Amino acid sequence: MAERTAFPGLDLTGSVALVTGGGSGIGRETALTFADLGADVAIFDISEESARDTADRIREAGRSALSCPGDAASEADVERAFQRTQSTLGDVDIVVACAGVLGDYQPIAETSVEHFDRVMAVNVRGSFLAIREAVPQMRRRGRGAIVLLSSLDGLQAEPGMASYCTSKGALLNLARAAALDLAREGITVNAVCPSVTITPLLEGRLATLPDGDAVLASYASKHPLGRVLTPRDIAATIAFIVSPLASGITGAAVPVDAGKGAAWDNYATPPWLAT
Ligand SMILES: NC(=O)c1ccc[n+]([C@@H]2O[C@H](COP(=O)([O-])OP(=O)(O)OC[C@H]3O[C@@H](n4cnc5c(N)ncnc54)[C@H](O)[C@@H]3O)[C@@H](O)[C@H]2O)c1
After folding, report:
1. Residue 184 CA to ligand 1 centre (angstroms)
2. Which CATH number is 16-194+231-256's, of 3.90.190.20, 3.40.50.720, 3.90.105.10, 1.50.40.10?
3. Angle at 48 between CA 42 and CA 50, to 5 degrees
4. Which stretches in the chain have pLDDT values below 50?
């Protein structure tokens, strides 16, 4: 029998990562976590200032970083970001497509074509473009790990969110299809499906409500763990998935949902158990 050795800890030393949407929320926390684990990281974001801010923090942590402003839906911008990353940091072996937009709440019959197209362009076309640009660099490295940010809204749906839910559902099959195409080349592609996560995106939405704090508390109570998620919860899962420890996982939809997907109904302790 082969001798057993202990697993190494999470270590991304020597990796070059590109994180789209790395200027805020889940993308920023993921980029900082990668740097903590030894990777050099390129930050691609439509907000030049926030991309630069994340890159500065990574340099302060002692790793190399690059900020690339651009629109995830633009073929030219994504191509340019991957070229700059390659010439500055080297070929990427990790890509996380976090850039995403929620769009306004709009019932399906009142959803404009422009709204639908923009949400699909950023969330779905943006992820497709990131995969396509990553592959030649990952082939040269002989390995690669790609993570797409789907959502619990990709596995289930919520009212008034047809454009977003459609885009997040599409990402699950984009991850599966890409995983199959790349499986024999040592490149994994997975989707992560967070439930409610406290980020500027969510805070912006809650701020539009008169009772935002109460809504957040009610979200928390509907998750079996009794809380919503933090960017760190999602970044930790992504870090595991892109690490060599998870090299056997591809084409998966990985929920990070505080148990929400396990519940038959909006979770609350039934009155007969609450003593
Ligand atoms: N926060 C949640 O509850 C939650 C839950 C499930 C999934 N997600 C997904 O996680 C991802 C990150 O969300 P977040 O909550 O961290 O959001 P966020 O708004 O805090 O961060 C998103 C980042 O993407 C950037 N961005 C937006 N449009 C872009 C574009 N066209 N090109 C380049 N960059 C662009 C923004 O500038 C921002 O820096 C999104 O795909 C979102 O759908 C979030």
Report:
1. 31
2. 3.40.50.720
3. 75
4. none
